[in-house]
């Protein structure tokens, strides 16, 4: 068995759906329906480009200059996005996660995040990927604080949904009623703004054209089931994404800076518990007390 760069490859299937989850970061490497890709993918023996399918823990998006304060103490994270002087996408996406349980249609992986100088807290994590022949993929992430003191927590994920053709000709429907403006370092400026009358009002759905988006939305319109939904529709098929109330934010990215072969061929739909810079700003940041848990779910389906 090859020793792939992304570690063990956990394949699950249900009806027309097939998914592959990696040992590295418990990331979603592949998701197909009747052999058609629902997410942008990459080879098992290469690192996930542009965070394809990665879990983002204990913060999604960015932390301004890697600095934050929690319970009266200042902390400095490594600057993992040096070109913008930020810390980006958490601490777990390249780490090996351990198999907890696998069945034909589901797999659960776990990881224990050790404390570090930038994040001196213990965090227990479990990610479950489950396929249903009718409903598609559901991802459930559970975070537990096994430590002796409260910790700051946020999470997200970075799948790019696709319909196998360029975004420019696709219709995109988004549930966000507000968007978070950012500066040239991708750090929020002020509070969320109403999308009404702006280029970011995609609630009714429209053809994207050449519009570039890399922005967080909130005030998400939800159905009676409490789920916020994104729909990407091409000339032949559609792919949908949903997120539950545990993630009140949704980053949308039109894949403008990913590898050339995938550029603008997938829509980043990133469920987030808080906005960019939440670890520093405290906006929607979760305070996880010793012994407490936080759980969120989201999913992807054809149609």
TrEMBL record:
Lineage: Bacteria, Bacillati, Actinomycetota, Actinomycetes, Catenulisporales
Protein name according to UniProt: Aldose 1-epimerase family protein
Cited Pfam families: Aldose_epim
Gene3D superfamilies xref list: 2.70.98.10
């Amino acid at each position: 068995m090859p020793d792939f760069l992304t570690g063990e490859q956990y394949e699950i299937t249900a009806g027309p759906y097939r998914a592959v989850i990696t040992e590295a970061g418990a990331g979603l490497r592949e998701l197909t329906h009747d052999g058609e890709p629902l997410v942008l993918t990459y080879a098992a023996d290469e690192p996930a480009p542009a965070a394809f399918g990665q879990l983002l823990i204990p913060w999604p998006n960015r932390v301004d200059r890697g600095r934050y304060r929690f319970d009266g103490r200042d902390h400095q994270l490594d600057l993992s996005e040096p070109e913008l002087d930020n810390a980006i996408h958490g601490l777990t996406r390249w780490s090996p996660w351990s198999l907890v349980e696998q069945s034909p249609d589901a797999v659960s992986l776990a990881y224990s995040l050790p404390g570090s100088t930038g994040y001196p807290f213990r965090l227990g994590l479990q990610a479950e990927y489950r396929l249903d022949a009718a409903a598609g993929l559901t991802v459930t992430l559970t975070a537990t604080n096994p430590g002796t003191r409260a910790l700051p927590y946020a999470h997200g994920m970075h799948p790019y949904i696709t319909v196998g053709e360029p975004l420019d000709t696709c219709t995109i429907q988004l549930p966000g009623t507000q968007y978070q403006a950012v500066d040239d370092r991708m750090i929020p400026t002020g509070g969320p703004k109403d999308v009404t009358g702006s280029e970011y009002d995609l609630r009714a759905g429209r053809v994207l054209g050449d519009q570039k988006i890399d922005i967080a939305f909130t005030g998400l319109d939800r159905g009676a089931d409490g789920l916020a939904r994104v729909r990407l529709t091409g000339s032949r098929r559609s792919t949908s994404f949903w997120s539950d109330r545990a993630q009140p934010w949704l980053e949308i990215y039109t894949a403008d800076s990913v590898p050339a072969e995938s550029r603008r061929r997938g829509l980043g739909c990133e469920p987030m518990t808080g906005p960019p810079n939440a670890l520093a700003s405290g906006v929607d940041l979760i305070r996880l007390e010793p012994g407490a848990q936080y759980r969120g779910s989201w999913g992807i389906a054809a149609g």
